[in-house]
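Is this the right way to post structure tokens for a design question? Let me know if I should format differently. Anyway, here goes:
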């Protein structure tokens, strides 16, 4: 595809909704509440917001600059700016592929829980113990989770095959508002449950006695995963921004929306958890085990459950689309394959990888990489190694290598906007982000302990 034919997104709202679509995902609704639950609730929230401001905003602005300035896929973008740094583009391609390898699997689970809610099958499982067994039986089954993984990958494929404007832009404009409305409705329902306010207190009252050094590291990792940064995903999306898109406002809006969804997800989950007297620290199973048990105690439980899992599906879908797009546009522009074929190749390869990773939770569980099954190793390698490393290198690139004038021009829209905090942005990108991110990276590799 020639450069002049490259798609661009419509207005300001499109840029925000598309980028927020990538950011808002399972990370906000599934991961944030349980990590906050394990790390003292309100105290975690304060630290998390600090990380978003110190790390999230600068790295997001750096990625927007690289993408919008070059109007290219992540590999092409880095190559154009500095040949030596094109490896960062490959980091983005590899990371997106590996993330889809486990993200499609969890997304498939949300689809299964949604269909079980619609058919009413989910209401047969009343206690947490039975729900835990059901979850374990389902996720280790050799057939059913794979089928749902494949269906989810095909759903993603359909949107990508429709193209940037008709597929990605339209679907984000449709799904994001629905997602917000459902989230607000569910949060209100949950807060009005008996004892629900206790849950809100847990989320908003900081208890710093629970904070350890690891809390800071968890918050940093979560902030990165949640904002989809460090992986070139935002480079790819911002390569479709038009020249009038205000990068500063877009970045602030994306950060605000992403954080708001995480907080609302907490405001939806903790009151419900407190109202039935369950500990908020039940870990990753919070959404798939604890919540279905709570829904079963409610009138119209299956309906609430269906709304909740539909919410998760929409959140997951807008994120899988963004990861798929990173790979599709890479094949399209770098290998000269037509967009249609590129999308098919990506769907085929990611579906095979995700199916294998689903099977690794059950029948292929004996196959281990460094002691972890395939599903866990994909999660570990991306979240703990590639993501913080990618983020660290992105900030070094933007702070030290990239021509400052390019950064200033993009951020200030060629002088049309004020770039009041430009000096601060450069200091954060040069010193603060690399240091903090390098520490997560080394910690996750086990090179130091706290
Ligand atoms: N930000 C998404 C979430 O919070 O679930 C996950 C994600 C999407 C991470 C895209 C990275 C990415 F490039």
């Amino acid at each position: 595809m020639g450069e002049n034919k490259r798609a661009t997104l419509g207005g300001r709202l499109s840029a925000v909704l598309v980028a927020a679509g990538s950011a808002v995902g399972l990370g906000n609704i599934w991961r944030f509440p349980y990590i906050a639950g394990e790390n003292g609730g309100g105290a975690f929230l304060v630290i998390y917001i600090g990380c978003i401001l110190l790390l999230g905003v600068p790295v997001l602005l750096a990625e927007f600059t690289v993408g919008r300035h070059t109007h290219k896929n992540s590999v092409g973008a880095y190559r154009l700016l500095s040949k030596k740094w094109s490896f960062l583009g490959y980091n983005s391609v590899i990371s997106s592929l590996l993330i889809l390898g486990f993200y499609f699997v969890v997304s498939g689970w949300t689809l299964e829980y949604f269909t079980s809610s619609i058919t009413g099958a989910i209401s047969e499982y009343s206690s947490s113990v039975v729900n835990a067994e059901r979850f374990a039986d389902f996720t280790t089954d050799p057939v059913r989770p794979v089928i749902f993984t494949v269906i989810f990958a095909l759903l993603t494929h359909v949107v990508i095959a429709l193209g940037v404007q008709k597929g990605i832009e339209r679907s984000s404009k449709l799904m994001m508002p629905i997602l917000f409305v459902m989230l607000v409705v569910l949060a209100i329902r949950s807060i009005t449950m008996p004892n629900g306010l206790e849950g809100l207190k847990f989320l908003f009252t900081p208890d710093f006695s629970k904070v350890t050094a690891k809390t800071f590291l968890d918050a940093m990792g979560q902030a990165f995963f949640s904002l989809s940064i460090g992986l070139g995903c935002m480079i790819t999306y911002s390569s479709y921004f038009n020249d009038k898109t205000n990068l500063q406002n877009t970045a602030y809006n994306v950060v605000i929306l992403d954080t708001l969804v995480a907080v609302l997800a907490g405001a939806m989950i903790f009151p419900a958890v407190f109202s039935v007297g369950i500990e908020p620290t039940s870990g990753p199973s919070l959404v798939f085990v604890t919540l279905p048990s709570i829904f079963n105690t409610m009138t119209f439980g299956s309906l609430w459950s269906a709304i909740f899992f539909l919410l998760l599906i929409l959140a997951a879908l807008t994120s899988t689309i963004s990861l798929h797009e990173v790979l599709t546009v890479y094949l399209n522009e770098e290998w000269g394959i037509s967009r249609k074929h590129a999308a098919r190749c990506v769907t085929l390869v990611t579906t095979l990888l995700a199916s294998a990773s689903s099977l690794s939770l059950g029948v292929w569980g004996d196959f281990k990489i460094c002691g972890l099954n395939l599903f866990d190793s994909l999660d570990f390698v991306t979240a703990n190694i590639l993501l913080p490393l990618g983020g660290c290198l992105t900030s070094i690139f933007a702070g030290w290598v990239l021509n400052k004038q390019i950064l200033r021009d993009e951020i200030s829209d060629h002088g049309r906007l004020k770039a009041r905090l430009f000096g601060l942005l450069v200091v954060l990108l040069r010193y603060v982000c690399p240091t903090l991110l390098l520490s997560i990276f080394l910690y996750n590799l086990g090179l130091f302990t706290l």
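Format looks fine. Someone answered above. Worth noting: The pocket of 4-fluoro-L-phenylalanine is lined by residues 22-23, 25-28, 99, 225-226, 228, 231, 233, 319, 322-323 (CB under 6 Å). DSSP finds 18 helices and no strands in the chain.
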